[in-house]
Amino acid sequence: MLRESSKRSGSLDSLNLQGAVAADSDSGVPHGGLLTAFAEAAVRRTDALPGLRDRIVAELGPQELVDAAGVVANFQRMVRIADGCGIPLDEFTRDATDDVREDLGLHEYASAANTT
Amino acid sequence: MAFEYAGVDLPIREKTIASQRMSWNMIARPGRWWTGAERVEIARIGRAARDFEAARSELLPEAAVHAIQKLVVDNANLSREWYDEIVAAQGMTEDRYVELVAVVVHALSVDEFHRALGLELEPLPEPVSGEPSRQRPALAEQRDSWPPLVPKAGLRPDDQMLYGPLEWGANVISALSLIPENVRWLHDLSEGHYLSFAEMRRPDPLRAISRPQIELIAARVSALNECFY
Questions:
Q1: Rounded CA separation A112/B68 (Å)
Q2: Are A5 and B72 an interchain contact pair (Cβ–Cβ within 8 Å)?
Q3: What residue numbers bound the domain in which B44 lies?
Q4: Which of B97, B100, B85 is nearest to B42 (CA)?
Q5: Inter-chain CB proximity A87 and B115 less than 8 Å
Q6: Is B137 within a domain?
Q7: What's the CA gap between A11 and B212, in Å, rounded?
Q8: At what angle do helices A62-85 and B62-73 cross, to 10 degrees?
Q9: Does any domain span residue B136?
């Protein structure tokens, strides 16, 4: 979805998918480092979270913060549905991600055994 | 009324509030296999899952409590063997498991929204009295997911479009369909927190952050959870 949305927005050339999985990689998405740091702090419930909220409001805006929180909340749910039901990859996802799953290290996740 | 966001100086969207209220109503009502009181207890255990002492229940089977804790705190390490053990345990079935997962993950999503914004958690709803309907969908079928799934024809007419052009929907959309009402619930909270299924096919602008920013956050959350799907 990240790659597809970047393609649609004309920013595919600057996209680095490693930025989605590794904290020290720049995704190439505007404000991507701040948003992924926020996501990580929210998921891990770290002390960095309040400061990151303030930074998002200051650098992006309050609606951006609320929308980013919604995405975190949504995917905290979706991953548990996938993991809890052992769903396989959809055919279109498998085809679209064949070339990057290995590079991103996704096969090393324990849940890969349930979903391949 | 729940989710007033009184005194909150943030622009919470109306769709978000509506979908969170819908979620609390869903949790409070009797389901197909659990009473309203049991469903609220499932949400309570999910909220307390990281606290060993608080995550005990006199209302739920032991296997249900274990499943809730695992789903909340160790979801990356679930397996087919674990699922088979849980649904075979005393007081559990595939149907009860699917209903439990739906309550856990929707309640957790609403709580995570609040935590991410530094807001107090909404008090859990008061249970609605009544008995579960105990109706298993006639069209349920075992496919590649662990629990059986229900095809488009088994959903309420108004919900069938949620599967899009596919007879069985995308795997994550149909994953909880053994309780067909879950498909609508999944969609409506998606719309409130992320995007509706229809919006997912539309170009920006959709929210205050761009679609690549949305999907980057989604990808990071999935990676942090080590979710292959």
A1: 21
A2: no
A3: 14-197
A4: B100
A5: no
A6: yes
A7: 9
A8: 130
A9: yes
Distance from CA of B211 to the nearest CA of A (A): 6
On whether residue B208 sits in a domain, the answer given is no
**Chain A interface mutation, best of B191, B216, B227, highest count of A Cβ atoms under 10 Å:** B216
What are the sequence ranges of the domains in chain A? 7-66
pLDDT tens-digit profile of B32-56?
A: 999 999 999 999 999 999 887 788 9
Answer whether B80 sits within 8 Å of A114, measured CB to CB.
yes
**What is the C-alpha to C-alpha distance for residues B66 and B71, in angstroms, rounded to an integer?**
9
User: So what's the ipTM on this one?
Assistant: 0.97
Confidence (pTM): 0.94
Of A43, A60, A41, A61, give the one whose Cα is nearest residue A52.
Answer: A41
CB spacing of A60 vs B209 below 8 angstroms: yes
φ, ψ for residue B60, nearest 5 deg: -110, 150
- Please say if the pLDDT value at position B117 is more than 80: yes
Q: What pLDDT digit, counting tens, does each position of A4-50 carry?
A: 887 787 887 778 888 788 888 888 999 999 999 999 999 999 999 99
Question: Taking CA atoms, what residue in A is nearest to B223?
Answer: A21
Q: Would residue B175 count as lying in a domain?
A: yes
Percent of chain B with pLDDT over 70: 100
Domains: count for chain B: 1
Query: Which whole-number Å values give the CA distances from A56 to A53, A61, A63, B86, B109, in the listed order?
Result: 5, 6, 10, 42, 21
